[in-house]
Structure formats: structure tokens, C-alpha cells
Design a protein that fits this description.
CATH architecture: 3-Layer(aba) Sandwich
Strand order of the largest sheet: 1-2-3-4
Number of domains: 1
Order of helices and strands: EEEHEH
Shape: globular
Strand content: 35-45%
Number of helices: 2
Structural class: alpha+beta
């Protein structure tokens, strides 16, 4: 139901993302959840993630929002995503494992 995107530099794999779309009544449309987003350390700060997120916005006109999760202690990533327009929501994220 989702999609896996592999980031490449020539023939070298430099990262990946797992995308899961779902409908949200609260936001009134499709949300594209970025379940995983990883870029190898040597390729960070080179615009890989920024370029990827811009492409997601351009190609997903049926989505009303992009969503991702950040570990609260990862302030570098949190600040970066907020700089790109992501914001904390009013709701808390809860999960129950089974």
C-alpha cells in the first residue's frame, strides 16, 4: 500500500524513504506519511532531503499534507524540518503495540 524510494548518486545507494498514503477526515484529504527517511552520513547537508521533499510536494497534488515523525531529542532534524515548513500538530501521537 506504500512506496519505497531509493536515493542514488550514480550507481551508489545514498538513502531511502518509505511513504504511506492515508485518508484523514481531520485534514479533509490524503496525507502522505513519510514513515522512514534516511540519508547516509556522507551525503547529508548536500540537499538530498530538501530536493526529495520538494519533489514530493510537486508530484502529490492529491495530498493535502506531508507528515513525518521526529524523535524529540533529535533537535537537529526537528529544526531542519520546521525550517522546511513542517510544524507540530495540536494532537499527540499515541501507539499501542500488540
Amino acid at each position: 500500500m506504500g512506496e519505497i524510494i531509493v536515493f542514488e548518486d550514480g550507481k551508489a545507494v545514498v538513502g531511502y524513504s518509505i511513504l504511506i498514503p492515508y485518508w484523514s477526515n481531520e485534514y479533509g484529504g490524503n496525507i502522505l506519511h513519510i514513515d522512514e527517511l534516511y540519508v547516509k552520513a556522507d551525503y547529508r547537508d548536500r540537499g538530498v532531503t530538501t530536493s526529495f521533499l520538494k519533489q514530493l510536494v510537486r508530484r502529490n497534488h492529491d495530498a493535502v499534507a506531508l507528515q513525518l515523525e521526529v524523535t524529540p531529542s533529535n533537535t537537529r532534524a526537528l529544526n531542519y524540518y520546521q525550517k522546511l515548513g513542517f510544524r507540530k500538530t495540536k494532537n499527540s501521537h499515541l501507539i499501542r503495540t500488540i
